[in-house]
Amino acid sequence: MAAGLRGAGLQFPAASVGRLGWGMRSGKRSLEGAASGERRAASGERGLGRRFISRLGEAGSGSFPGERRGRRRGTRRMAAPGPRLTRVREVLKACFRAVERQQNVWRSALQDCRPLLGSLGNLAEQVEAAQNVAFEAAPLGAFPDLRERLKRKQLTAGDTILDKLEERMAVLLGVRDAVSGHVERAFEVYEQHARPADIDAILLRSAVIPSIADMLEWLQDIERSYRNLYLGKRDLINQISWDNLPFLQALPQAWERVSEDDHQDLVHDTLLMVSFFLDS
Known about the structure:
It holds the Pfam family CA109-like. One of its GO terms (cellular component) is cytoplasm. Residues 56-80 are annotated as: Disordered. InterPro entries: CA109-like (IPR029159). This protein is an all-alpha fold. The protein has one domain. The chain is built from 12 helices and 2 strands, in the order H-E-E-H-H-H-H-H-H-H-H-H-H-H. It has helices at residues 2-8, 33-42, 48-51, 53-60, 67-73, 86-131, 146-193, 199-203, 212-238, 245-257, 261-273, 275-279, and strands at 24-26, 29-31. A two-stranded antiparallel sheet has the order 1-2. Helix 6 packs antiparallel against helix 7. The chain is rod-shaped, with a radius of gyration of 26 Å.
């Protein structure tokens, strides 16, 4: 996706990356523009503004169009939204609404996973306990095939739980892919319609409606969060083996350590910050 942004040629001067943040605090999360840009730069992740930079900057020799006027007057005049960006705004609205729907599906699937993981952990404890039983001694010795019958029953129950877990993982994968598809579509439409002359409209924001640049960056953050969370959960499921009973017993706790808190804050706070935009 970053390559697509570079191909679009819509980038901002590096010195002005702080403009892309939106200075609004919501719950636990603070999206302070300059601080956000510095954190991304420090972590090696260039913010959306940096990915837009070079070719938009070429026309203005490293300055925003109209930025010199703004310095002389003390404030930068906000340009009216360009007509080419109407389609971009429509797709952004559709994308955020899709994120809201998909987050509900994601949350429901995760809730379904927790009791299944608990059942799997309990079953692993039962399998371990059965391994320590002396089936050959009286009175169990009268049933020579009891150990194998019990083992088959336990493994069949485990396979049933795993099948249900895989169904939930398929739902999580579907959410990840759906969000990625919507975000990719938003960037494609942006690349098709935005022009260097639209820089003022791309940066335009009000007290309640963020800029197009803000919203594109937030969508990219959300898409990355879904992708990383799914990979973390998938990795745990891939490690499931009846030869590693301690891992199965600890799986519910390991699942919870792949924390959802930051992801939920990100999605919730972002949707809150675009609520006026969605209603506009």
